[in-house]
User: Fold this.
Amino acid sequence: MEILRIVLSVIFILVSIALTVVVLLQEGKSAGLSGSISGIAETYWGKNKGRSVEGKLERGTTFLAIGFMVLAIILNINF
Assistant:
C-alpha cells in the first residue's frame, strides 16, 4: 500500500505542476484590444472557442482541476 501512496503522490505533484502551468498560460479576461474592435473579436472567438488554443487550455484546466481534487481526496483517505 505504501508503493501505491508514493505513486499517487508523484502523480499528484505532476498534476499540480501541470495545472499551474496551464492556468498561467491562459489569457486574462481583460486581454485584447479595447473598444469596438474588441467586441467584434470577442464574438468571433466566442463562437469558435472550442477549437482555439484558449478553448483547449480551458478544457485542460477543467480536467486537471478534477484530477487534482480526486487525487487530493484519495490521498487524504487513510487506507
Summary: The longest helix spans residues 2-25. Helices lie at 2-25, 36-47, 53-76. The chain is about 75% helix and 0% strand. The chain has a mean pLDDT of 82.
